[in-house]
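ok so i was messing around last nite and threw this chain in just to see what happens. nothing serious, just curious
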Amino acid sequence: MTAPTTTGTAKVELPSATTILITREFAAPRHLVWRAYTEPELVKRWWAGEKGEVTLVESDFRVGGRWRQVMVAGPGFEVGFNGEFREIVEFEKIVCTETFEGMPDAYSVNTISFADSAGDPGRTTLTMLIEHTEAAHRDAHINSGMEEGMQGSMDALERVAVSLR
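result:
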């Protein structure tokens, strides 16, 4: 029997003027959520959620390696993000920079952590701490409609991870 999914349950908190904390539980084991989050062909299946089509996922997945993701979110509306991997602990943590290409002077440092949910190896808790350099950049991120898009992306990430069983 498959565990129930956790649609739309990502929790967004604002711990400081420059940070966003996202927490989401997934009905899939950590190694499958990790794969779905890190393998470019799998990222293409979830990153846009229901908001568009992923047109590019490039990833040199190593410390010092660069990544870039692009999606078309509507007619003539393309958005891209890129960054550099700073730390990778397999199945546990990724630390990377992230720049929205529409605001190239603003970037964040993101720490994405993967853990078994309450000791249950069949479920995963993902936490994402997004640290902006300025409060205005954090506020622009929040006010961009980020939460709605992120909920859809996280739902799709769960579907992809569950499909890997």
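not much to say yet. The helical segments are 30-38, 40-46, 135-142, 146-163.
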